[in-house]
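Re: that backbone. Tokens:
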């Protein structure tokens, strides 16, 4: 286990989980979040003006059809022909269908363009975040933000936004015509609207928090699924299937309970609004009937039109309330997306940053201190000089700070005290890209991608010719098993290398480092998962690969670093011993005891 796995940064961020329980997420300002979404998509909303125009046209049927229906009733009452009015209604409904079709097609294009931009922006932000952020978050929970939360935003933009614009035009248009027909009846109808608005605010104020909690619990469940699947072999090996199922059931039950509460609360809205709508319709019918009997309304068609308008007028408010509920989920997802976008990324290059194109490889650690958390220091006052071309081995017990030292050198983390010099300059003075390009790295954890074997080896040098790639594989002893694969070097590793053994995956990562031909080499437990025969092959390849280069080799198998120019033993974050293999053996200290124990010899107290 690496040092950073032993010391994870504090989990005080939105959506982080501790012990399987979600941290409470307080929703941000609803309008503020929508405003940020609007600002984020600036330049990607081309076509929204046309959608706005189509929304206005789409509301025409709702605005004009009741009026034409009332005129038809009056015409029938007066014995006038109604053919023209019926043809107008048919044409109006056909135009309504055509406009809504065009509206949906255009909105699908604009909506997906916007979501494409949001998804790209979020992913770009994520890959520029420091490792400390990922150490403090479960991967499944982060994947939920990139998929589920973005999908919720996509659904709202693609479906709800066009409906919202259409209903807004419908409400304004109908209100104007109702006022024209009868201001008194319009006043009666507006009483129900006030009740609907009050009810909407009352319910959505409560559902907003519930939907935010639902999205958070969904992220926790996704993290549990990802963790369970990726570690299924360990689960089965230790017969923990029942425990894993129990944990999954608890998180699934929690998500289900949260979702049920949110759905029940939001479910109150539509039935109550329908009751208000029906009562309003009945009140208008009675009130207009009384007015007609008293002669205050002379046209029976006006009553027909007004009743239809009342039905049309309240329905958009009901639908808008329903849309507003869906906006709660989208806003909750957007808040979680912005939570990542607001994180501090890796340090940007300063305007005066130095290029680092032809390094000698001289490294110096000056009083370096570092801790993954403020309360626990992993490295304590490390001072170390590594001349250019030196093959430096770093050994020590688990958690002593070996991998941390390398993480600081490559600027995966920055020191909390002291400084690291490379060719006489602080590593923070160099451009980040140039600095990391100078290192050829074989990490303790093998990482392969869903691509061909050839592409995985060429990851650090995509333009390398095939012959050079195959030569790198032969040099580390990987060529033999690669050619046994179904398509040799062109075999696609569908599961990111999961179909290969751990040792085979490690050989591919070593071949990748060999091909990169970087001036400074870092090998973190490069032979930890291979057999002794393969280890000897890799050992000779490592000697050749490190010749003339500054190299840092972290190893538990001390037999592989005997011929290093310098060996550093770390204990408790400090340098306990340092020297060549022979010097340390002659010293008879901790290193000598470790070496003799590994080689099967006995050492006295």
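Recovered sequence:
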């Amino acid at each position: 286990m690496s040092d950073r796995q032993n010391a994870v940064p504090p989990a005080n961020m939105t959506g982080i989980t501790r012990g399987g329980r979600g941290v409470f997420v307080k929703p941000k300002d609803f309008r503020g979040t929508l405003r940020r979404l609007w600002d984020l998509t600036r330049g990607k909303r081309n076509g929204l003006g046309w959608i706005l125009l189509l929304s206005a046209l789409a509301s025409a049927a709702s605005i004009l059809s009741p009026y034409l229906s009332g005129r038809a009733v009056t015409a029938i009452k007066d014995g006038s022909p109604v053919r023209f009015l019926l043809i107008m209604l048919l044409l109006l409904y056909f135009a309504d269908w055509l406009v809504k079709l065009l509206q949906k097609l255009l909105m699908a294009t604009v909506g997906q363009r916007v979501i494409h931009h949001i998804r790209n922006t979020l992913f770009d932000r994520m890959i520029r975040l420091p490792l400390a952020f990922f150490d403090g978050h479960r991967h499944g929970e982060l994947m939920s933000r990139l998929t589920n939360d973005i999908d919720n935003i996509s659904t709202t933009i693609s479906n709800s936004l066009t409906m919202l614009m259409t209903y807004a035009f419908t409400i304004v248009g109908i209100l104007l015509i109702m006022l024209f027909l009868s201001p008194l009846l319009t006043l009666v109808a507006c009483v129900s609207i006030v009740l609907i608005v009050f009810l909407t605010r009352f319910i959505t104020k409560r559902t907003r928090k519930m939907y935010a909690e639902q999205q958070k619990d969904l992220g926790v469940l996704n993290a549990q699924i990802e963790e369970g699947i990726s570690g299924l072999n360990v689960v089965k090996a230790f017969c923990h299937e029942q425990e894993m199922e129990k944990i999954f059931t608890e998180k699934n039950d929690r998500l289900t309970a949260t979702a049920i509460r949110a759905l029940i609360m939001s479910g109150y809205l539509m039935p109550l609004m329908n009751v208000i709508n029906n009562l309003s319709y009945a009140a208008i019918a009675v009130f207009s009937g009384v007015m007609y009997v008293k002669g205050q309304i002379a046209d029976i068609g006006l009553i027909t039109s007004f009743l239809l308008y009342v039905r049309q007028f309240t329905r958009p408010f009901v639908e808008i309330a329903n849309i507003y509920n869906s906006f709660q989920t989208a806003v909750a997802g957007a808040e979680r997306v912005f939570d990542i976008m607001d994180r501090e990324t890796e340090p940007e290059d300063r305007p005066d940053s130095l290029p680092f194109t032809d390094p000698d490889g001289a490294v110096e650690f000056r009083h370096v201190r570092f801790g993954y958390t403020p309360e626990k220091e992993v490295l304590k006052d490390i001072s170390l000089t590594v001349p250019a071309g030196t093959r430096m081995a770093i050994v020590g017990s688990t958690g002593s700070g070996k991998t941390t030292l390398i993480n600081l050198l490559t600027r995966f983390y920055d020191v909390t005290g002291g400084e690291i010099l490379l060719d006489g300059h602080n590593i923070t003075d160099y451009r980040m890209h140039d600095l990391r390009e100078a290192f050829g790295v074989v990490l303790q954890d093998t990482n392969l991608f869903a691509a061909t074997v050839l592409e995985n080896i060429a990851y650090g040098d995509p333009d390398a010719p095939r012959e050079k790639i195959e030569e790198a594989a032969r040099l580390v002893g990987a060529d033999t098993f690669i050619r046994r694969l179904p398509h040799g070097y062109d075999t696609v590793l569908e599961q990111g290398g999961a179909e290969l053994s751990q040792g085979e995956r490690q050989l591919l990562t070593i071949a990748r480092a060999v091909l990169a031909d970087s001036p400074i080499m870092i090998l973190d437990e490069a032979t930890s998962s291979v057999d002794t025969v393969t280890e000897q092959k890799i050992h000779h390849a490592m000697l050749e690969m490190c010749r003339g280069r500054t190299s840092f080799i972290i190893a538990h198998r001390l037999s592989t670093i005997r011929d290093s120019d310098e060996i550093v033993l770390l204990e408790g974050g400090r340098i306990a011993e340092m020297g060549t293999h022979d010097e340390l053996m002659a010293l008879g200290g901790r290193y000598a005891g470790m070496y003799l124990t590994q080689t099967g010899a006995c050492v006295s107290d």
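Residues 278 and 390 are 86 Å apart (CA to CA). The radius of gyration is 35 Å.
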